[in-house]
């Protein structure tokens, strides 16, 4: 039975004169088998550095600002544990999510099958078209050991209406692009909603979106 998730939090900027720019906060979860590089992807995106995968205990949390032409988006990134013993509690972390990255290792066929199982779990929790889902084939730096072809993964993604991208947290290949694709998809989804169905401004959002000036400058440059 499908369950409806929480609407994104939004606030309109306040300043001199009229403004159409909006601020949104979206929850993004990373799901996948252990050692596929979920933590490395999150760390590379937020810290612009590479860290070898270390098993996540429960869940790790990151935030990052994305500055688009008409909106500022704060991504709350939840990196979930991939070990089987944590599977029963993972639904607590992806509850009320707005987007999900289903990560697998292109050099390990079994992790691709596991990503498909995660998709089934999400389909039980969310309404169709309610969650932006990106299928991510990580570790393109191990292309010589590839067990999942680009064509196979892309075909599956298309059959399920998912975004598909391949990355390498180690070489920093398309990591930022994945999160930018999520930001654009979420904003497009927001803009397509009927005005009456859009959430009311969440007053605390504007306070929560305040970041050190150097971080804000960096996100806007990217």
Automatic annotation (TrEMBL):
Catalytic activities: GTP + H2O = GDP + phosphate + H(+)
InterPro entries in UniProt: P-loop_NTPase, Rab_GTPases_membrane_traffic, Small_GTP-bd, Small_GTPase
Membrane topology of the entry: Lipid-anchor
Cofactor needs: Mg(2+)
Subcellular location as annotated: Cell projection, Dendrite; Melanosome; Recycling endosome membrane
Superkingdom in the source lineage: Eukaryota
SMART domains registered for this protein in UniProt: RAB, RAN, RAS, RHO
Region (Disordered): 192-222
Biological processes per GO annotation: anterograde dendritic transport; cilium assembly; endocytic recycling; filopodium assembly; immunoglobulin transcytosis in epithelial cells mediated by polymeric immunoglobulin receptor; melanosome transport; protein transport; regulation of dendrite development
Biased composition (Polar residues): 211-222
Keywords, comma-separated and alphabetical: Cell projection, Endosome, GTP-binding, Hydrolase, Lipoprotein, Magnesium, Membrane, Metal-binding, Nucleotide-binding, Phosphoprotein, Prenylation, Protein transport, Transport
Main location: other
Keyword Plastid listed: no
GO cellular component: apical plasma membrane; basolateral plasma membrane; dendrite cytoplasm; endocytic vesicle; glutamatergic synapse; melanosome; neuronal cell body; postsynapse
GO terms assigned for molecular function: G protein activity; GDP binding; GTP binding; metal ion binding
Signal peptide positions (record): none
PANTHER family for this protein: DRAB11-RELATED (PTHR47979)
Name this protein carries in UniProt: Ras-related protein Rab-17
Species annotation: Chrysemys picta bellii (Western painted turtle)
């Amino acid at each position: 039975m499908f369950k409806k998730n929480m609407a994104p939090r939004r606030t309109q900027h306040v300043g001199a004169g009229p403004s159409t720019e909006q601020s949104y906060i979206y929850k993004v979860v990373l799901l996948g088998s252990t050692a596929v590089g979920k933590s490395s992807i999150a760390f590379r995106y937020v810290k612009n550095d590479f860290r070898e995968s270390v098993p996540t205990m429960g869940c790790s949390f990151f935030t990052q600002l994305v500055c688009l032409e008409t909106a500022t988006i704060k991504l709350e990134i939840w990196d979930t544990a991939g070990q089987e013993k944590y599977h029963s509690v993972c639904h607590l972390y992806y509850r009320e999510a707005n987007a999900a990255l289903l990560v697998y290792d292109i050099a390990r066929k079994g992790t691709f099958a596991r990503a498909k199982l995660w998709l089934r779990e999400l389909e039980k929790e969310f309404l169709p078209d309610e969650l932006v889902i990106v299928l991510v084939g990580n570790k393109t730096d191990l292309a010589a050991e590839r067990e999942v072809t680009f064509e196979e993964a892309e075909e599956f993604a298309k059959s399920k209406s998912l975004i598909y991208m391949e990355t390498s947290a180690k070489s920093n290949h398309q990591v930022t692009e994945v999160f930018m694709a999520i930001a654009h998809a979420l904003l497009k989804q927001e803009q397509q909603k009927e005005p009456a169905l859009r959430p009311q401004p969440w007053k605390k959002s504007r306070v929560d979106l305040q970041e050190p000036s150097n971080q804000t400058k960096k996100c806007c440059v990217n």
